[in-house]
Amino acid sequence: MMTMQAGKSATAVDEIELDAPIFDPTAFRLNDEQAAIIATGRVLGQTVFASRATAYDRDAKFPTENYRDLHRAGLLGIAIPKKHGGLGADYQTYAIAAAEIGRYCGATALTWNMHVCSTLWSGPLADDLDMEASIRADHEQRRAVHYNRIIDDGAIYSQPFSEGGAAAAGGVAFGTEAKPVRGGWIVNGKKIFASLSGHADYYGVLCTEIAEGEKASRRNTLYLALPARAAGVSVVGDWDPLGMRGTVSRTLLFKDVFVAEDAALMPRGVYFQAAMRWPHMFLTLSPTYVGLAQAAYDFTVRYLRGEVPGTPPVKRRMYPTKQIAVAQMQIKLEQIKAVWFQAVTEARPNPTKEQVLRAYAAQYSAMEGANEIATLAIRTCGGQAMLKSLALERIYRDSRCGSLMLPWTAELCLDRIGREALYETDESDD
Ligand SMILES: Cc1cc2nc3c(=O)[nH]c(=O)nc-3n(C[C@H](O)[C@H](O)[C@H](O)COP(=O)(O)OP(=O)(O)OC[C@H]3O[C@@H](n4cnc5c(N)ncnc54)[C@H](O)[C@@H]3O)c2cc1C
Fold this sequence. Notes:
- This protein has helices at about 5, 30-60, 65-70, 90-100, 105-125, 135-155, 270-275, 285-305, 320-345, 355-380, 390-400, 410-420; strands spanning about 10, 15-20, 155-160, 175-180, 185-195, 200-210, 220-225, 235, 250-260.
- It is of the alpha+beta class.
- The structure holds flavin-adenine dinucleotide.
- The site of flavin-adenine dinucleotide has 24 residues, from strand 5 and helix 12.
């Protein structure tokens, strides 16, 4: 019997043979609480989300039903501190749970990431940053408003920051502007590729606070939860992409939108501080792709063993070329898992240079590696395996999107690793 099969367990309740976890809790030293939260994601993913994924992908439809289930399972509040009614998961636990969901539905995992980051960044991450006591107390009150909406009402938050310019890569201030007015701000701007557009209840918009006559500065970045139904908010453009179709990442326009003070997901200056001191905050798009890498591998093993429902048993596994390809996929998968697990485990404020370079390497490995494994999976399984009736074709297309995600695209990771490995801060050749 193969390892993957040996790791399975049968549930008495629904008689579905559950997949083994991507990260075995004992081998990866996860505690019982972490293992239970991660298992909730895996079981929901396998038993419910996997069967819905085809339709969301085909119709480029947002996975609304999955979000109801995530709410019921407590997973909309996975990173919300326990004192606010959430599961209180740390970064590592969230990341592994997201990988498990990505294994069964990439679009659900990727959009769930945008939602969870609204709580992770305003929650445990913000707790690691410097704030005066009175500002922290205000923040505590404000975030409770957001958390209550999520826990009690199943409110969904998104995270649009891409604008099509250099801002999302971290180069310049966001072009979306928030003008301070009595009781809040007036927001104007545009966000492209805004996943969950038309489906989130609140858009967690990154924008630049600019008072009359001031110049835009990244230091003045605000992170505001705009109510989706506020006057002046509109969703435009169509959405018919190659992959991650269920994310519904259309364009958001903000025209003189009034946003009240309590909409701030982070106090003034704290997003900028986070971007400088907590760089792993930008690694959270990668778990989805670790899940897709595992999914492509799982599919190949099952397919070659003749265990994929709806396909004829293909007697191919005895050929050395197939075995070598599976070996290459398994090696690649373990390489991704190893560097990625280490990186998500050491996410913290003020990481060392080595840890930051490793985080870039983990992002690059997951984003490029998932597609490499999916490509090999299609070549190895053959023509019958790339039919739209099977999951592999969707996994392949979804996996292609990983390296495009700003601010840590595959190209930018290479740029940063090369530069930061060769130059110390403030060093130049002049
Ligand atoms: C399925 C999907 C969902 C998404 N969801 C969201 C979301 O919810 N929220 C959100 O904010 N964004 C989201 N994005 C957007 C994503 O993060 C990128 O912003 C987007 O893919 C950029 O596309 P672009 O063509 O404008 O890239 P460009 O900015 O034109 O960049 C093209 C490429 O050039 C490189 N590049 C960019 N800037 C630099 C630089 N300064 N130096 C060197 N190289 C550079 C990068 O490698 C990049 O891939 C999503 C994208 C996809 C595909």
